[in-house]
Amino acid sequence: MSDEAELREKLNRTKMAVDQHKADQSAGRYENLMRRSYLHPESAEKKMNEYRARHGEDALHEKLTKNAREPAFGRRPGSVLSSDGYKEGAQDRRNDSYIARQSLPDAVRDYHADKEQAEASKRALELLGQQRGGRPAASPQPGSSFSERLQQQREANARAPDVKREQKERDLERMRRDRENDKERGR
């Protein structure tokens, strides 16, 4: 293996490890907020995933943002509809749930984005391993110039999903909508 290929593999392994660590942190934050936000986090997560599949990521984020006090995906701890609704400390659990639900939209978005980025890094490392293994269609031609190999690398990167760019575009669109709503309200 050449020094360039070895360095590329080390860089990709490092990027994959960083992305996986970030995804694990996002998953932990997401699970913690789900436990604090809902009485039955598993069923709430199932409803969220169904809603996300039907309406998209932005619609889920918007619904979570607007309905911090509403039972959109399930009841919250300390709910008067549950058996512990009138027990001591129920109001504190409701307040904690409200605070957790305010942070939940960003945590859900980060969780899904980081998970997708970690999966993309893993696929890129596997693709690099396949190229090194001698697949004729994916490996660069022997004797190809540096610029040709660089162009092949750029094409491979363009085919991989860029989650951060998509997230930035969604955030910019949300900011534009918020600005338009503020103008309509006369602020």
How does this model look, in words?
By secondary structure, the protein is an all-alpha fold. It has one domain (3-185). The protein is 75% helix and 0% strand. The chain has helices at residues 3-37, 41-55, 57-66, 90-132, 146-159, 163-185. Helix 1 packs antiparallel against helix 4, helix 2 packs across helix 3 (57-66) and helix 3 (57-66) packs antiparallel against helix 4. The longest helix is centred in the middle third of the chain and has 43 residues, at 90-132.
* Class per helix and strand makeup: mainly alpha
Strand residue percentage: under 5%
Radius of gyration: 23 Å
Kindly state the percentage of residues in helix: over 70%
Shape: elongated
How many strand elements? 0
Please state the average pLDDT score: 79
Uncertain segments are: 134-140
Distance between the termini: 62 Å
Number of helices: 6
- Tally of domains: 1
Biggest β-sheet: count, sense, barrel?
none
N-to-C SSE string, H for helix and E for strand: HHHHHH
Task: Briefly summarize what is shown.
With 187 residues, the protein is an all-alpha fold.
Can you give keywords for this protein?
187 residues, mainly alpha
List the helices and strands and how they pair.
Layout lengths: L2 H35 L3 H15 L1 H10 L23 H43 L13 H14 L3 H23 L2
